[in-house]
Amino acid sequence: MAEKYLSQIYYNPESSASFGGVDSIYRVVKDEGKHQISRNKIRLWLQKQDTCTLHKPVRYRFKRNRVIVGAIDEQWEADLVIMDSISKYNNGFKYILTVIDVLSKYAWAEPIKTKTGENLVKAFDKILIKGRKPETFHSDKGTEFMNRKFQAFLKKHNIRFFTTQNETKASIVERFNRTLKTKMWKYFTAKNTLKHVDILQKLVKSYNHSGHRSIGMRPVDVNEDNESIVWQKLYGEESNKSVRFKFNIGDQVRINKARRTFKKGYLPDWTEEVFTITKRVLRRPPVYKIADFDDEELKGTFYEQELQRVNKSDSDFY
């Protein structure tokens, strides 16, 4: 009886709570006084309604996991900065390979003309020749880093490789990219030029010799003797915080879709397919492993803000 009554309120276009949320429906229920229905019951009922769960607003800005490492050069992040719009002023160089050490924040940058495996190998080899080498190499899902020649080069140097499975980028190198490009464009304005190839290494040196707020010192000054101090500065406070999970193993969820350019805001932002939580991963913030209807586990992990609990019975899938 209560579910039928809620349907009459929710699906009636003339109702003040038509296709609304918990609070708007609760106000109508309370004002009419026909049934005693709590906010929690309304919330559970809405979790069964596809019209609600498919069109629920998506959060795109939320705290994500920090990359935690234990030592200098344990992990490097890499990215390709696109510079093709000003390549004619820079001897045809269309990209800049940027690399950063996660702990020390020390960075490198090398210009390349094309995204071929051969050019990536040459650029990264220039970085390794300078004397440092990572244990692991991390990038987003860009195909250029999956190139056979580049992968063979990493293997030759005993460097493990992994990619980010979700839609977010390798965040630490992305922040360095913003810093580098800000310095670069200020230089362009000051000198009335668009040429960067002759000052790129100077800008990188300037960054490495500047104080970095997150580590409390200059990246160039971080070494094996003081890396424990840097680690404590970066991660010490978070290591004592407790973690609370929003979802339980077995919960049914939808996944939010990655926003596309010019995507219409009124179209569904969530997958029609429903998935199941299979594992809770203790991180800050916590993340989850999920599986599809055939119990096949999806690659990567998902943040709570990327998932939405639904309440579907087995009959709803047929």
UniProtKB/TrEMBL annotation:
Lineage: Eukaryota, Metazoa, Cnidaria, Anthozoa, Octocorallia
Matches recorded under PANTHER family: CHROMO DOMAIN-CONTAINING PROTEIN, INTEGRASE CORE DOMAIN CONTAINING PROTEIN
GO biological process: DNA integration
A Pfam family assignment: rve
GO MF: nucleic acid binding
InterPro entries according to UniProt: Integrase_cat-core, RNaseH-like_sf, RNaseH_sf
Name of this chain's protein: Uncharacterized transposon-derived
